[in-house]
């Protein structure tokens, strides 16, 4: 039986809500039955009608939705929160307190203190909070992780991760662009580029490496004059074993559409993954020919090969990664916290917000090396 899903955000003019709805239906594990899709009631009503929902289950705000759905015998079992960042924590709190599990877009919230409070709410409620770091569910990212943790690269030496975009290279927030608008407001976004795409790069690097740095040095820049939040981020990292790392996230890097790239170097070899070519993983052993792993190839670990949804040679990436997050979310919601151990949860969200807070402290101190906050 499908899990009854609600949604907060994702109305007309939104982007990520439609992605979540597609992902939730990919394995037929969820059915969308209710929503508070917009603070604009007309928008919410139209969105609900377009999705063929019962008009009585379209709500003007998420507090009302949480209370009324929790009281229904056929109420939602889980809610997807796809709002701007400032509503993540209050919406998640409302549903967790009502006994409803949460799937939340990243970043977790707008401040580290809010993240700690939300983590405590999760603990007290006994419910699940799942974070949609979709890139960590790509089959070849899972393969990269398996190979690193199996020791194929030897001892970790260097980590290079970058997430480069160009879409904010002009001041779109001044021209009425909805997506750029809220991302440029500190009150709604909390953080700029570092929260929007920097947390993706951070989570991906640490997911594949299996470890966090112990100290970082950060520079957060606003390249576009008048922009109130960072749009370019440079972070250097040091790991416990002496390995070094570098993270560059930018939304003003002309010529890059969605350039998420990860390179990991060890004492026995290296690997490289480029999100814009997600069906290939390059392996470069020391003193041996480089080779390219393709998604679904027989040489993959069986558990990662099984993640492929389409035949070899066909493109697979962004939507399927989201679909895998929802597939594993269904497994965890049905079978408990021990299911789907690689699924990002509240711990991943806390680590992301701790990274942002540490980077800000380092930047404010002139890029001083700063010990990473460990939640």
Automatic annotation (TrEMBL):
Keywords attached to this entry: Oxidoreductase
GO molecular function: glucose-fructose oxidoreductase activity; nucleotide binding
All residue ranges annotated as the GFO/IDH/MocA-like oxidoreductase domain in the record: 141-272
Enzyme class: oxidoreductase
Domain Gfo/Idh/MocA-like oxidoreductase N-terminal: 4-132
Record flagged with keyword Oxidoreductase: yes
Keyword Oxidoreductase in record: yes
Highest rank taxon of the organism: Bacteria
Enzyme Commission number(s) of this protein: 1.1.99.28
Xref: Pfam families: GFO_IDH_MocA, GFO_IDH_MocA_C3
The protein's name in its UniProt record: Glucose--fructose oxidoreductase
């Amino acid at each position: 039986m499908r899990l009854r899903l609600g949604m907060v955000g994702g109305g007309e003019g939104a982007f990520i809500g439609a992605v979540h709805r597609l992902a939730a239906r990919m394995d037929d594990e969820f059915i969308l039955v209710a929503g508070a899709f917009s603070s604009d009631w007309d928008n919410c009503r139209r969105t609900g009608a377009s999705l063929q929902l019962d008009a009585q289950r379209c709500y003007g705000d998420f507090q009302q939705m949480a209370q009324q759905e929790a009281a229904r015998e056929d109420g939602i079992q889980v809610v997807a929160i796809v709002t701007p960042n400032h509503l993540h924590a209050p919406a998640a709190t409302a549903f967790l307190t009502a006994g409803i599990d949460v799937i939340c877009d990243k970043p977790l919230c707008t401040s580290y203190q809010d993240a700690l409070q939300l983590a405590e709410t999760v603990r007290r409620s006994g419910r699940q909070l799942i974070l949609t770091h979709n890139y960590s569910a790509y089959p070849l990212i899972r393969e990269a992780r398996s190979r690193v943790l199996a020791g194929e690269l030897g001892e970790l030496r260097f980590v290079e991760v970058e997430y480069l975009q160009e879409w904010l290279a002009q001041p779109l927030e001044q021209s009425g662009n909805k997506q750029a608008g809220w991302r440029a407001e500190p009150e709604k976004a909390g953080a700029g580029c570092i929260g929007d795409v920097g947390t993706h790069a951070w989570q991906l690097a640490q997911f594949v490496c299996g470890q966090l740095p112990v100290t970082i040095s950060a520079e957060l820049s606003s390249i576009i004059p008048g922009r109130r939040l960072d749009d370019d981020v440079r972070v250097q990292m040091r790991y416990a074993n002496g390995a070094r790392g570098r993270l560059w996230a930018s939304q003003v890097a002309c010529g890059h559409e969605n350039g998420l790239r990860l390179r990991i170097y060890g004492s026995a070899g290296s690997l490289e993954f480029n999100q814009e070519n997600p069906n290939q993983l390059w392996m470069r052993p020391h003193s041996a020919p480089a080779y390219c792993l393709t998604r679904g190839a027989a040489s993959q670990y069986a558990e990662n090969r099984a993640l492929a949804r389409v035949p070899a040679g066909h493109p697979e990436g962004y939507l399927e990664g989201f679909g895998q997050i929802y597939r594993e979310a269904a497994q965890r919601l049905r079978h408990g916290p021990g299911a789907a151990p690689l699924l990002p949860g509240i711990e991943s969200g806390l680590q992301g917000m701790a990274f942002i807070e540490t980077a800000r402290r380092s930047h404010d101190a002139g890029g001083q090396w700063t010990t990473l906050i460990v939640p």
